[in-house]
Amino acid sequence: MLTRRVFLRGVGFLSAAPGWLARAAAGAGERKKKILVVLFQRGAADGLNVVVPFGEKRYYELRPAIAVAQPGSGENAAIDLDGFFGLHPSLGPLAELYRQRHLAIVEGVGSPDPTRSHFDAQDFMESGTPGRKATRDGWLNRALEKGKASPLRAVSMGALLPRALRGANPAVAIDDLNNFRVRSAQAAPAFQTMYAGTGDTVLQGMGRDTFEAVRLLESVQKQTYTPEGGAGYPRGRFGESLQQVARLIKSGVGVEVAFTDLGGWDHHVNEAPQLGNLLRNFGQGLAAFWRDLGDRMEDVCVVTMSEFGRAARENGNRGTDHGHANVMFVMGGGVKGGKIHGEWPGLEREQLYEGRDLALTTDFRDVLGELVERHLGNRNLEVVFPGYGARRFRGLLG
Amino acid sequence: MVVGLVAAAVALGGNAFRVKLDGEKKIEHALNRLTFGPRPTGAEAVRKTGLKKWIDAQLHPERLTENPALQAKLAPLETLRMNGAELARKYPRRPGAAKKASGPAMRKLAAASTEDRRKMLEQYAPPQVVAYDLVESKLLRAVYSDRQLAEVLADFWFNHFNVYLDKGADRYLVTSYERDAIRPRALGNFPDLLRATAQHPAMLFYLDNWQSVDPKAVAGRGRLAKRARGLNENYARELLELHTLGVDGGYTQQDVIEVARCFTGWTLRVPRGGGEFYFNERMHDRGEKTVLGVKIRAGGGLGDGLQVLEIVSQHPSTARFVSGKLAQRFVADEPPPALVEKMAQTFTKTGGDLRAVMKTMLDSGEFWSQGAYRSKMKSPLEMVASAVRSLDAQVDSAFVLAQAVGRLGQPLYRKREPTGYSNSSEEWVNTSGLLGRMNFATALASNQLPGVKAAPERAEGAGLRLGSPEFQRR
Fold first, then answer.
1. N or C, where is chain A less crowded by C-beta within 10 Å?
2. Average pLDDT over residues B372-382
3. Residue in A120, A160, A203 closest to B427 by CB
4. Is B51 domain-assigned?
5. Shortest CA distance to A341 belongs to which of A303, A306, A308?
6. CA triplet A4, A6, A9: central angle to 5 degrees?
7. Tell me, what's the pLDDT at B19?
8. Which value, in Å, is the radius of gyration of the alpha carbons in chain B?
9. Nearest CA to CA, how far is B76 from chain A (Å)?
């Protein structure tokens, strides 16, 4: 825990804000860039109750109190996907996207590191180097190719910059898009000069990122935003974050990667009602994002992840303790959807990891790697995921 | 003044921790690290007392008279003095009440006096009174207390043993948790502090241990029996990972399970009515356990859990983990290993005497070095409190200050995850936070924050200073 210094960067970085401003003002992006949106479910979502293996008898034996019922067995039953797997009943909007083949699911996926610590597991997934704590930057930052680009090429929604986006490329944390500015017009230029001139390298770099992003966002802030396609974002921070990501993408300010997270998945007690509420929020948010972006989804890919799954067997309190492998969603215009990718490891005792958790059959870097290389077009995977050469892509993109 | 500092520290590398600070810088450094920031007259006061004597006084807060102004400001916040049962009775949840105030309602609340605001909240959302009393008291203490080091440490230890105010019954339990378990022991004895947190209803509820039951126990009657039928690993894991040994401290999944078995039966009476710890023999796993290689004999009852706390308190990993975390908060993001080792030795030798550990740190060359000096980024709480202190501003209501801390990314008592907030600088360096700090600084200095007043001659033009890169470091 006592590692990692504040990222020193920026000296000599080629900033290109003026060019971007000009292009944004002209409203013309020359080459249409692909965009990757990453959603992190913090707290370890219970994948086995998100994508339900209702075809497996053992599932019901392991979870007598909290299993999601088989499709067709009443109101709170799973939504059938393929006769074996079903979606949690709160994920109706995603079932529709799955049927339209815009949404793909990867089963048995996660980090190969055995830790059941939330902190370490999130850290490993965001650094992109499981088991290695010395990595200082995040995979999503490394996924950006060097060179001239928009100051808003990497954005995260929230008051803090997540580990995945920290690193040598500029990345911008935006809590509230409309208020992303220095409110005092008098103080703004003085602050800008002050930060540009400081000998504090860390804050000088961060100050430059900040003011470049502020300039670029001025034009966006002048327009009011109305979601399109009848998109109904759920109330709350998660829905607002997704809406702000959509707004940034549509305003053509050069976003390449975006990150947002949703917490509260750590259900050790009384899981069913809490998971239902969270998934409703989650599913509605994703579906609204899809509708709002409309045709722009051709260039956008959304991927969801969580630090690990939860134990196959429910615990003593109608909840679940920390587990291993999990499930990921991939949504987008170019995605080979309507399919469960990866291999299902099974739930029999000898099939479970350490006799208790869903086993890993796909490394999360296989999923992210495929999206970085084939969607974002960055072929330097050894930089994005150092030390990982497997490249066992799952064919998620058509 | 700090121009080139970071670069200098980098150039010096590890040697920077061997370069001593001169006298004037030492005072500045002490005020930056051991308080929530210097007041305009702070350095002068320390000089008059003498740095050594001043530090010694801060290490013995019980000998210091508390600032009467603080006492007066805390007086109207009645819930701070109530127990859980009283809080649950007097500030009940209203079914159907809005969970969050709307924008205009929020502005009305911010503009009101503390007294009026408490009345308004009591009308439509009584449990909010409990929450606001807590967060406002934290800001008031940070700004006004004369026992500054004790306040910094109360914040450190609450965060180390984090609980979450918005998890169900915890709304009524956290007040006592901080007041009765954490604060009296912030310079006390670690095993004692650990036990106080382990048995406090706020922790038992937050990490679910109150519902953890021996899987073989015959289900009894009553509501708990219906809900609880087996082990819950949540507390056991975080106890090892976050409270004591640290994630690399040398425990296994089997240790987690064994520890969880030891703590079965550590439960609560009426959790939602204020909560009271008790040991329930029927929920307890009476079998033999092995924790970190130590055999715990069958039939130990309540003693099983106490024995676990003893084992982990005395484990060398705990001495290192706790010392390292303190050093990260007080000295540097990556504290010199030699310093951590010295502190850990004191920890072990004294059986976890936290005052002695702090003293070892404060007697070290590393603490008073160029490597430590202004190397830390202020957390949002530190930034907000230090800005108010540096203007000697008068706080009649801390509501708006608490909101500012939350918007900067550190909502107080509301870190959902048991990790607490990071003690590392990098957590607080980002574009959103930087803009937020500039905006807070200018609003404060132009007296735009309701409930907070700065003297015009002091505030004039101070916005730029408080929003500057220099002011973000401590």
1. C
2. 97
3. A160
4. no
5. A303
6. 115
7. 96
8. 23
9. 32
In a domain, B48, yes or no: no
Q: CA A363, A366, A367 angle in degrees (round to 5)?
A: 105
Total domains, chain B: 2
CB atoms within 10 A of CB A57: 10
Q: Determine how many CB atoms are found less than 10 A away from the CB of residue A368.
A: 25
Contact check, Cβ <8 Å, A182/B438: yes
Same domain, B74 and B92: yes
pLDDT tens for A4-54 read 345 544 433 444 455 555 555 444 444 568 999 999 999 999 999 999 999
Q: Are residues B179 and B151 in the same domain?
A: yes
Q: Token match 């008592």: residue? A: B413
Calculate mean pLDDT across residues B217-223: 61
Confidence grade of residue B23 (pLDDT, cut at 50, 70, 90): confident
pLDDT for A306 equals 98
pTM as predicted: 0.91
B214 and B187 inside one domain: no
Measured in whole angstroms, the distance separating CA B404 from the mean position of its chain's CA atoms is 18
Work out the angle between the directed axes of helices A237-250 and A271-293 (0-180°, nearest 10): 20
Distance CA(A190)–CA(B104), nearest Å, equals: 32
**Integer CA distances (angstroms), B37 to A172, A222, B320, in order:** 28, 39, 28
How many angstroms separate the CA atoms of B421 and B381, rounded? 11
Please say whether the beta carbons of B19 and B135 come within 8 A: no
CA distance A73 to A71: 6
**Band of residue B196 on the pLDDT scale cut at 50, 70, 90:** very high
pLDDT value at position B350? 98
Q: Smallest Cα–Cα separation from A374: which of A32, A29, A31, A36?
A: A36
* pLDDT for position B4: 43
Question: Are the C-beta atoms of B274 and B246 separated by less than 8 Å?
Answer: no
pLDDT reported for residue B100: 67
Q: Which helix (H) or strand (E) holds A62?
A: helix A57-62
Q: What is the pLDDT of residue B99?
A: 62
Which residues does residue A39 pair with via DSSP β-bridges, in sequence order?
A260, A304
Could you report how far apart the first and last alpha carbons of chain A are, in Å?
41
Pairing mode of beta strands B276-279, B266-269: antiparallel
Q: Are residues B260 and B174 in the same domain?
A: no
Angle between helical axes of B337-349 and B316-330 (0-180°, round to 10): 130
Instruction: Let me know whether B95 and B197 are in one domain.
Output: yes
Domain annotation covers residue B102: yes
pLDDT tens by residue, B425-445: 989 989 999 999 999 999 999
Domain boundary pick from B292, B313, B334:
B313
Q: Which residues of A touch B446 (CB under 8 A)?
A: 184
Kindly report the nearest CA distance between residue B233 and chain A, in angstroms.
6
Q: Cα distance from B375 to chain A (closest Cα, Å)?
A: 10
Same domain? For B220 and B195 the reply is: no
- From start to end of B352-416, where are the E strands? 394-395
Domain carrying residue B292: 207-313
Phi, psi of B388 (to 5 degrees): -65, -45
Q: Is there a contact between A2 and B4 if contact means CB atoms under 8 Å apart?
A: no
Find, among B326, B331, B339, the residue nearest to B374 by Cα: B331
Indicate whether B164 belongs to any domain: yes
The C-alpha atoms of residue B97 and residue B120 are separated, in whole angstroms, by: 13
Residue type, B129: V
Residues of B in contact with A321 (CB under 8 A): 232-234
Phi, psi of A397 (to 5 degrees): -105, 140
pLDDT of residue B225: 57
Average pLDDT over residues B371-389: 97
Task: Give every CB contact of residue B438 below 8 A, 6+ residues apart in sequence.
Answer: A182, A187, A191, B467
Residue found by looking up tokens 């907000």 in the block: B384
DSSP state of B152: H
* Residue B197 and residue B84 share a domain: yes
